[in-house]
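notes to self, project folder thing:

trying the whole complex as one job this time. last attempt i did each chain seperately and stitching them together was a nightmare. two parts in total, labels are on each line so i dont mix them up again. if this works i'll redo the older ones the same way
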Amino acid sequence: MSQMTYLEAGKRALAEEMRRDEMVWAIGEDLGRGGVFGQYIGLADEFGRERISDAPISEAAIMGGAVGAAMMGTRPVVEMRFSDFALCAIDELVNQAAKARFMFGGQKKVPLVVREPIGMWRSSAAQHSQSLESWYTHIPGLVVVAPSTPEDTYGLFKTSIRNDDPVVFMEHKNLWGLTGNVSDEEDFTIPLGKARIAREGSDITIVSWSATVHVAVEAADTLASEGTSVEVIDLRTLWPWDKEAVFASVEKTGRLLVAHEAVSVSGFGAEIVASVAEEMFSSLKGPIKRLGAPRSPVSYSPPLEDQVRVTANNIAAAVRAMG
Amino acid sequence: MRINTTRSNVDTDRLIQQYAQMRRIRAFEETAIAASKEGLVKGAIHPSIGQEAIAVGVCGNLETDDVLLSTHRGHGHTMVKGAVPVEMMCELFGKQGGICKGKGGSMHIADFRVGMLGSNGVVGANITIAAGAAHAIKLKKSNQIVCCIFGDGAINRGPFLEGLNWAGVFDLPILFVCEDNGFAATTRTKTMTSGAGPAARAESLGIPATEIDGNDVAVVDDVARELIDGIRAGGGPRFLVAKTYRLTGHTAADPAAYRDSAEVDAKWQGDPIKRCLDSILQTGIEDDVPEYEANKCLEEIRQAYEVAKNAPWPDIGEAFSDVQDSDLDTTGANQ
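result (full assembly):
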């Protein structure tokens, strides 16, 4: 085990995959000097400016170019800076990357990873704070990953790069500095579609992902002192999502709360609670609950920003209300 | 740069083959339109009737492992690149044996066996994909080039600017071909375009542009060959504007009532197939020579129609295959 940050874990994963496969390369704005958050610092020194390439501020060309480059046998990792900016490249991701394999009858796969940092971070306001992961789960052909820990970032990023289909890899900006243990095992990877039990418990299941996992664990610690045993499931990948792990936990606890930072309306929590309601109704001891942001843009001013934040207090209160 | 070439030495064998190729494309599309009227082709088809000289002149100069990106009006480009008409016809019919298993239809034909990386249903979307394909070629240090064909309507889309700038910045081996037929769907492009048009825009991005008569197959052939040779030699991206005219509507179902019949009648006089035949006959060759070559192609298309008409529908399981790796699908196909 080595201690490293969430940011460093992503960098280590990319460097290892670039050493392993010379067809892996990265492109995005400011990558040569290390990327907007420093996720690429030092990589150009080892791999050169062709494989850690700057790009013009042209999101559509970055993403569309990745589709062409992937169909030509390379494995591009493209950086969108903020998930909000990836909206300038939606045609390229949704109509092109996600569709090419199917619409061309399986002639070619499109192995690309698009890094789209999500989430609220330092008063970044409405165009730099969104969590849009559920949009991509709706698109057949895409894989959606949202890691919460350094080790998950490391293992899932490696798996995503090796995966033959387009992956939307959503790191949370507020987790860049989070430190944790990361495996030193050679060729450590984490499979897509496998959830992690972040905290074991028996009275209620909380399903979450990305930064909200840590908030849910904090709430679970508080609730434990009140005598409620909470199981926190970190989904890790939203598509494919680990139905088996969620169902097993709900089978055990009989209660389910889904908590996420994204707007609650049409958030991915809706998919999870609908699936549980459809298939596990008889196992439930009470109504399911969703907890997400109100349907309002993220504000700039800290006290206003906090109004749309899902907090440990919110989660604990929701659990208490569920009995 | 505008080129008005008067050829002195005519390679008649090449011209006869080009004539036959254009007839082959025309026959394919006329057959598809007829099949559409019969109800056998269900989806929209966008004919390139009147634009065949560009497909033949440009794509005829590409090697098999060169890469082609095309548009919704891409049957001709695809055929010249080497795709097999019977597989394309089955695709238009949505039948088994279709080049994309019947999943794509006319607008989404690709044939990776011959370097055809896809037609596209979104105007201009192929430009950034082409730039990325060329970027991969540069990374791999191979000797291929990319040819990206789009219409004049595409120059008003953002990806046109992003893709051309990209090609220039990274000095990529790519030939952009603007088929300037004067129409963006059913609107005259010039009424919705500010400035001097495609060549000026390319030049403003540092990409040398050449404007030619796209209805003269010999001119297209000569100029495209020269540009492609230059790109392959490391000269960087080039831009070709081929002036042409779409003799049919936007789709097979579009009567094109937004232009008067006198205009269209006059444009038929400049039909590239007619002009090519005139050039051949002017050399003293009897017309049965080109007709013999053309008839072989027409028979190929007639057979393609028969095969497509009689082919079975795809297995319904195809509706759910090739989405993504099967282990990534946790819901099953029925949800």
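what i see at first glance: Chain A has a mean pLDDT of 97.
need to look closer tmrw
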